[in-house]
Design brief:
about 290 residues; mainly beta; Jelly Rolls; eleven-stranded antiparallel β-sheet; six-stranded mixed β-sheet; 1 helix
Length: about 290
């Protein structure tokens, strides 16, 4: 039941009592949404349930709710639904980005400030898929933009990538083409260790080779800890396992990168050469 104003001596119906009981137990009437939505005063005491295959937002503004009001937020769609501070302030120890079948409760301390109690993602180590899809074939650029700052760090999985010959993926942060990158690469084959250290680069290398077309054994995992920190540079760690271009030697590359700019990471670009034959990727937000 939405928040009601009762009068002295008013007699409640059985339906009203049932609805009040549901609301007190954390339920209540449900408003179904399929596109991004801005909360209204009538949402107090109800459940707002998002159902969209695409990313959506639920925006929270001031002067709509009284101190002590609550709104339940649920996401049953495949697209990530992000609880977004409009003119109000939202504080949480979890994440404001809700994957499918996740939810939480907005509790208003004042008319302009709310707490969000994330039912699922408050647990340390939980992972939420932010973006996923197919890698470019041939040459191309995979650009992941408008990355949410709601997580502790990011993890990028590049799965079953392959190509038709020697090739390299290079990457940039925030579209920055300045000489702000440094990295060290250690590449291992069955019989050889290769090391390389570079500073003052305009990008950094993600892989050092590519396997023959059709190989599906290759994988790269990249970590971006403290990616929202805007007071220091960023450390990036990449681990890759793959077959070389002759598809006979197992190889590994352990790469450490440094992005020397004091800016939160909101965009990642992965730039592919001409020999790529595909693969898949997933970008996760990790709490």
């Amino acid at each position: 039941m939405a928040k009601q104003t009762f009068t002295t001596g008013q007699v409640l119906t059985a339906a009203q009592m049932t609805s009040l009981q549901q609301t007190a137990m954390g339920g209540g009437s449900t408003t179904a949404k399929t596109t991004s939505y801005t909360l209204v005063a009538a949402d107090a005491g109800t459940v707002v349930q998002m159902n969209s295959a695409s990313a959506t937002t639920i925006t929270v503004n001031t002067a709509l709710f009284a101190a002590g009001d609550t709104v339940q937020i649920q996401n049953i769609g495949a697209g990530v639904c992000t609880v977004t501070a409009g003119t109000a302030t939202i504080s949480t120890a979890g994440s404001l980005a809700l994957s499918q079948y996740e939810g939480g409760q907005l509790y208003f301390n004042t008319t302009s400030a709310a707490l969000f109690f994330d039912i699922v993602q408050g647990a340390s180590g939980s992972m939420t898929s932010i973006a996923s899809g197919s890698l470019p074939t041939g040459s191309g650029t995979l650009s992941l933009t408008s990355i949410s700052g709601s997580y502790t760090h990011l993890q990028f999985h590049c799965i079953a990538w392959n190509g038709s010959g020697n090739n390299t993926i290079i990457a940039r942060v925030n579209g920055d083409t300045g000489a702000n990158y440094g990295y060290t690469t250690e590449g291992y084959t069955l019989s050889t260790i290769r090391t390389q250290g570079l500073v003052g680069q305009t990008s950094y290398a993600v892989t050092i080779d590519a396997a023959v077309s059709g190989n599906n054994k290759n994988i790269t995992v990249m970590d971006f800890p403290f990616y929202t920190n805007a007071t220091t540079g960023k450390i990036i760690q990449s681990n890759t396992g793959f077959l070389d271009s002759t598809s006979v030697r197992a190889m590994a590359a352990n790469n450490g990168y440094y992005y020397g700019t004091n800016a939160a990471i909101t965009q990642l670009d992965f730039i592919y050469g001409s020999n790529w034959a595909g693969g898949t990727y997933v970008l996760y937000g990790v709490n």
